Amino acid sequence: THVVTENCIKCKYTDCVDVCPVDCFREGPNFLVIDPDECIDCAVCIPECPANAIFAEEDLPADQLPYIKLNADLTPKFKSITKRKGALPEADEWNGKPDKLQYLER
Ligand code: F3S
Fold first, then answer.
1. CA pair distance 49, 52, nearest whole angstrom
2. Shortest CA distance to 36 belongs to which of 49, 22, 47, 50?
3. Which residues line ligand 1 (CB under 6 A)?
4. 103 within 8 A of 9, measured Cβ to Cβ
5. Which site among 30, 40, 89, 92 is 20 to 30 Å from 7 CA-CA?
6. pLDDT at residue 26, rounded to an integer
7. Residue 12: what pLDDT?
8. Which residue's alpha carbon is nearest to atom 7 within ligand 1?
9. Widest CA span of the chain, in angstroms?
């Protein structure tokens, strides 16, 4: 599966959802996740993300491994999103900031 990682938090650009052929993105207040049961590993979303937040599971940086479980756990709580809706207002300021997990809204 593919996994949305920490740098999506407080950015949520949503460019990724427009290209997903199976509509597997789920939206929370300030983060998206990928439904691991729906993702077909096509990888087209990876270059679309301005925050470089999406990785194939096997390519995840070591410190982002907890996001495999986080994507799976939040999938049933978040709502389906299939159309780009624009980034959060301060996305460009938060893009690349470290330690954003503390700001994740569930
Ligand atoms: Fe998040 Fe990147 Fe999509 S910031 S909403 S994974 S385009």
1. 5
2. 22
3. 4, 8, 11-16, 32, 48-49, 51, 53-54
4. yes
5. 40
6. 98
7. 98
8. 49
9. 32
**29 alpha carbon – ligand 1 mean position (Å):** 13
Local mean pLDDT, 10-residue blocks, the chain (106 residues): 98 98 98 98 98 98 98 98 97 98 98
Q: Which amino acid is located at 14 in the chain?
A: T
Phi and psi at 33, nearest 5°, equal: -130, 165
Cα(43)–Cα(101) distance, integer angstroms: 24
Alpha helices in the chain (DSSP H): 15-19, 66-74, 91-94
CATH number for the region 2-83 comes to: 3.30.70.20
What token pair was written down for 87? 């980034």
Q: For residue 46, which amino acid is it?
A: I
Centre a 10 Å sphere on the Cβ of residue 79 and count the other Cβ atoms it contains: 8
Work out the burial of residue 69: count CB atoms within 10 Å of its CB; fewer than 13 is exposed, 13-18 middle, 19 or more buried: exposed
